[in-house]
Design goal:
The structure holds two protein chains of two kinds. By secondary structure, chain A is α/β, with parallel strands linked by helices. Helices cover 36% and strands 26% of the residues of chain A. Chain A is built from ten helices and ten strands. In chain A, the strands form two sheets. In chain A, strands 6-7-8-3-9-10 form a six-stranded mixed sheet, sandwiched between helices. In chain A, helix 3 runs parallel beside helix 6. The N and C termini of chain A lie far apart (41 Å). The mean pLDDT of chain A is 94. Chain B has one domain: ABC transporter involved in vitamin B12 uptake, BtuC (Orthogonal Bundle), CATH 1.10.3470. Chain B is 74% helix and 2% strand. The radius of gyration of chain B is 18 Å and the shape is globular. By secondary structure, chain B is mainly α. In chain B, strand 1 and strand 2 form a beta hairpin. Classes of the chains: A alpha/beta, B mainly alpha. Bound molecules: adenosine-5'-diphosphate and magnesium ion (MG). Chain A: This is Amino acid/amide ABC transporter ATP-binding protein 2 (HAAT family).
Chain lengths: 241, 290
């Protein structure tokens, strides 16, 4: 279970996040939607330890993880697949995956091979590229690699920042299916940040809507998709008065 | 023809030493974004401490590793005490700090070793040998082969080991590397340690050819810097080629024009590169691979 209480983040002197409350239950996919600049990435980056929160508290399975730097947050079981994929273009697919388990590599070196096999079963399109440089993959494959790499640390919760960005609908659907599989087969909690609201609503158990660094709405996908504001702002459906 | 061969051999020998210096620059630059102006001082410490270890009675084969390890420890200490605490400051601040470190170490060198030049006995003591029409100093051959071996080791380390891939990842994208659980600040310490060791080796190699003084860091540091600029700041293979090229240019200009101008020529090459190809000769050709 992930608990976020009163989380605020400043970048420089500007307050970006305003006392965010949010939680994720065991076995849940939680989607966060919101306009460009709403603070979704800042929220995920703060959870992952890339930014230090100015106030508030984050606990994962009862353990406080707020205030830890990013490389320690991974060890506590939270993995971020950052916006724009950020794979290591100068490393091979295999090296990228192995670095994904950097935090446990020395302890679980002999399981590394099995672990990579398992990830490749989930992302079969990566198999034929295993020794290619990450930078030579297509956008969709890079996203698969970024997610696979994020899973290599066996996280309790994985955060995905706009995985559908720039990808064809068919590939977006593949990714959504993989997220469902991760939830079912691995029991990993998932936070999915999306601009693609339809995709986000499709797989989510619960949805948060962010506006200007605040949580504006919160509910089940059905409740959120029925909300008139969401309809007009995000789903492109005109309100009839 | 024999003369050409001779200059080529001399150039490659000295150039391989410059290459080591350049790799030191490139490694630190890519991991921390800092141009480390104290790199030359690592060569000075390596050379002079090796002289001291020999004077203390250590045999050469023990004095060399002792000097390398000492210098590596100093490199590590510099990063932890001076660079790490201010790592979030601007890159310019950090570069100015390395200039300060350089001055400090040079002062320390002056206090410990004085102003008179020290000589380091060559490892190879036999007479010159004939090879392909050139008269080769065995010390040169030793240097060249050692550097080749070292380059092979570095290649394996960077390209084939897990920690090497973590270093390359931190070079490419420190933020994403930290998301993997890599403590990028310990990678920065590793970079300084490695660069200091490489500097020490370069200093120890060049000392029998030029003598060692507390001031030697400036010139060898400058040569390594020029080699890096020739090769492009972001790849090690470029640094190697840049070093060899600079060595050869120097040897030929020293041979055909005058040795008096060889340092000025290194400066000249630097200025030409900065004017016409500031990204280095090989930044495109070798791509992003380190
Ligand atoms: N590094 C930064 N420096 C200054 N402002 C930033 C930085 N990153 C994000 N912001 C600001 O924070 C706000 C939220 O950005 P972000 O979290 O990227 O939004 P989203 O991911 O929802 O599009 C925006 O107004 C953006 O301009
Ligand atoms: Mg964003």
């Amino acid at each position: 279970m992930l608990y976020v209480q009163g989380l605020s983040t400043h970048i420089g002197k500007i307050q970006i996040l305003h006392s965010i409350d949010l939680h994720v239950h065991q076995g849940e996919i939680v989607s966060i939607i919101g306009a460009n600049g709403a603070g979704k990435s800042t929220l995920l980056n703060t959870l992952a330890g890339l930014y230090f929160p100015s106030t508030g508290k984050v606990t994962l399975e009862g353990e406080v993880i707020s205030g830890l730097p990013a490389h320690k947050v991974v060890r506590k079981g939270l993995s971020l697949v950052p916006e724009g994929r950020q794979i290591f273009s100068n490393l091979t697919v295999k090296e990228n995956l192995l670095l994904g388990m950097y935090s446990r590599y020395y302890k679980e070196k002999n399981q590394a091979k099995d672990h990579i096999e398992m990830i490749l079963d989930m992302f079969p399109s990566l198999k034929k590229h295993i020794d290619n440089l990450g930078g030579n993959l297509s956008g969709g494959e890079q996203q698969m690699l970024a997610i696979g790499r994020g899973l290599m640390s066996k996280p309790k919760i994985i955060l995905l920042d706009e995985p559908s960005m720039g990808l064809a609908p068919k590939i977006v659907n593949e990714i959504l299916e993989i997220l469902m599989r991760i939830k079912k087969e691995m029991g990993t909690m998932i936070i999915l940040v999306e601009q693609n609201v339809k995709a986000a609503l499709k797989v989510a158990d619960r949805v948060y809507v962010m506006e200007q660094g605040n949580i504006a709405l919160h509910g089940t996908p059905e409740e959120i998709s029925m909300n008139p504001q969401v309809k007009s702002a995000y789903l492109g459906i005109k309100m009839t008065s | 023809m024999d003369l050409v061969m001779q200059y080529l051999v001399t150039g490659l020998t000295v150039g391989s030493i410059y290459a080591l210096m350049a790799i030191g620059f490139v490694t630190i630059y890519n991991i921390t974004g800092i141009l480390n102006f104290a790199q030359g001082e690592f060569a000075m410490i390596g050379a002079l401490s090796c002289v001291s270890f020999v004077n203390l009675g250590l045999p050469m084969f023990a004095a060399i590793p002792a000097a390398i390890i000492l210098t590596a420890i100093i490199g590590f200490a510099v990063e932890r005490t001076v660079i790490f605490p201010v790592r979030n400051r601007s890159v310019i601040t950090l570069i100015v700090i390395t200039i300060g470190v350089s001055t400090f170490i040079k002062g320390l060198g002056l206090i410990i070793w004085g102003t008179s030049p020290r000589t380091l006995q060559p490892v190879m003591k036999m007479g010159p040998i004939q090879l392909l029409g050139a008269v080769i100093n065995p010390q040169s051959l030793f240097i060249f082969l050692t550097v080749l071996l070292l380059l092979a080791v570095l290649y394996v380390f960077f390209d084939k080991t897990f920690i090497g891939s973590a270093l390359r990842a931190s070079e490419k994208n420190p933020r994403a590397a930290s998301l993997m659980g890599i403590n990028t600040s310990s990678m920065s310490a590793l970079a300084f340690t490695l660069a200091a060791a490489l500097g020490a080796i370069a200093g120890i190699m060049i000392a029998p050819l030029t003598d060692a003084t507390y001031e030697m860091g400036f010139l060898i540091g400058l040569k390594g810097f020029v080699a890096m600029v020739i090769g492009g700041v972001n790849n090690i293979s470029g640094a190697v080629v840049g070093g060899l090229l600079l060595g050869v240019i120097e040897a030929f200009s020293g041979g055909f024009i005058s040795t008096f101008y060889s340092d000025a020529i290194a400066f000249g090459v630097l200025l030409l590169m900065l004017f016409f190809k500031p990204t280095g000769l090989f930044s495109k050709a070798t791509g992003e691979r380190v």
